[in-house]
UniProtKB/TrEMBL annotation, chain A:
This is Trafficking protein particle complex subunit. Belongs to the TRAPP small subunits family. BET3 subfamily. Part of the multisubunit TRAPP (transport protein particle) complex. GO terms for biological process: endoplasmic reticulum to Golgi vesicle-mediated transport. It is found in: Endoplasmic reticulum; Golgi apparatus, cis-Golgi network. Plays a key role in the late stages of endoplasmic reticulum to Golgi traffic. The keyword Transport applies. SUPFAM superfamilies: Ligand-binding domain in the NO signalling and Golgi transport. One of its GO terms (cellular component) is TRAPPII protein complex.
UniProtKB/TrEMBL annotation, chain B:
One of its GO terms (cellular component) is TRAPP complex. This is Trafficking protein particle complex subunit. Pfam families: Sybindin. GO terms for biological process: endoplasmic reticulum to Golgi vesicle-mediated transport. Keywords: Endoplasmic reticulum, ER-Golgi transport, Golgi apparatus, Transport. Gene3D superfamilies: 3.30.450.70. It comes from Bombardia bombarda.
Length: 218, 161
């Protein structure tokens, strides 16, 4: 009986490992704008993210390693998100950001709005003249950390490294290669109101600034 | 009206959380005593679930069709809940036993109202800020900053009412 069942299907379909719905409508057949306004349950995301952190925590050597793993989990999402969000823009403004400022605004407004339903709280340029390549995106209470209390012995860790990975993906996809890290700044003098306040430090690579300077001249 | 203390006991009878919200009212006890209290309560609760006379379960043969349970479908009697409230002249103890066997104990003033609403809220916070925390190990003592913070602000609001 088992043989008969298998013989009815086109050959090779089982071996491919992909399973198609019976009506052959996969998510790739759907319009990209279909889920534009739909929302997800925060609770199910919280459980999923909690498992992602637990998974990343296995076989890591330290906190830096853990943050790197979270960062890597977010990176491909950022790459794809850039394309998706641009294609959803009205056709006139469908160009990818060409300057650092417009890229950061795109992240602060469009990416944040899409991921978290609100804009990021602040955008800053590093005031230190030694590091003109550093920009900061500030989020007073990152959604990914809503239910996470980091134990004292790991106080260096910020699980928003995952979001940093997404930002890094967006920057890399837009041809602005950068390193993005997440830092907790709450709990200090002004941090009392926002104990989970997080700064995403965006450090662009040298060639980006070089190009930016050339564009500025021309 | 005051909420004095919250105690959370895991399903094995171990104390996983205790917090006093009000200094006056009840005697202060040491952490060791809290542990003993949790273990003792766990045992007493187990006994009371057995003492609780089973609800009148209809015999299989005499089951007739009712709107809630059509004929042929056996209804399972509700499991005995055991000790729920303990009241003395000084305080009132309310116990909430979750589906997984975790017990929440709230010690309140005898005049405190809406304790079950508070209990529900505490349970909600527990499921949010403890169970969704990737760094919390099941059945272990609860050390979650956000849970502490949210709990304190919520209870303080009730106590200051």
């Amino acid at each position: 009986m088992a043989n008969m069942g298998a013989a009815g299907k086109p050959p090779g379909k089982e071996a491919a490992g992909l399973r198609y719905p019976t009506n052959m409508k996969t998510i790739y057949n759907r319009s990209l704008n279909r889920s534009k306004t739909s929302e997800l349950s925060q609770a199910s995301f919280a459980y999923l993210f909690s498992e992602m952190v637990s998974y990343a925590q296995k076989r890591v050597t330290g906190i830096q390693d853990l943050e790197k793993r979270l960062n890597h989990q977010g990176h491909p999402i950022g790459l794809k998100l850039l394309d998706l969000l641009l294609i959803r823009e009205p056709p006139r403004s469908q160009t990818r950001p060409l300057t650092i400022i417009s890229l950061l605004h795109f992240i602060k407004i469009n990416v944040w709005q899409h991921l978290f339903g609100r804009q990021a709280d602040r955008l800053e340029k590093s005031s230190n003249p030694d590091t003109p390549d550093e920009y900061m995106i500030v989020d007073n209470e990152p959604l990914v950390n809503a239910y996470i209390s980091v134990p004292k012995e790991m106080s260096q860790l910020n699980c928003a490294a995952y979001v940093a990975g997404i930002i890094e993906g967006v920057c890399d996809g837009a041809a602005f290669p950068a390193r993005v890290t997440a830092h907790t700044v709450g709990g200090k003098e002004e941090g009392e109101m926002w104990p989970g306040k997080t700064v995403f430090l965006v450090k662009f690579q040298g060639e980006v600034l070089e190009r930016e300077a050339l564009i500025g001249k021309g | 009206m005051t909420i004095f203390t919250l105690i959370i006991i895991n399903k094995a009878g171990g104390l996983v959380y205790n917090k006093a919200f009000h200094d006056a009212g009840l005697n202060k006890i040491s952490t060791n005593d809290y542990l003993v209290l949790a273990g003792t309560f766990h045992g007493v609760h187990a006994i009371t679930t057995r003492l609780n006379p089973a609800k009148n379960v209809p015999d299989r043969a005499t089951i007739t069709a009712t709107p809630a349970a059509p004929a042929g479908i056996l209804t399972r009697p509700e499991p005995p809940s055991g000790l729920e409230v303990l009241e003395t002249e000084n305080f009132r103890l309310q116990c909430f036993n979750t589906m997984t066997g975790t017990k929440f104990l709230l010690f309140t003033d005898t005049t405190q109202t809406n304790v079950d609403v508070t209990m529900r809220r505490v349970y909600e916070m527990y499921s949010d800020y403890v169970m969704k925390n990737p760094f919390y190990q099941l059945e272990m003592p609860i050390r979650c900053d956000i849970f502490d913070r949210k709990l304190l602000s919520h209870i303080r609001e009730i106590n200051n009412r």
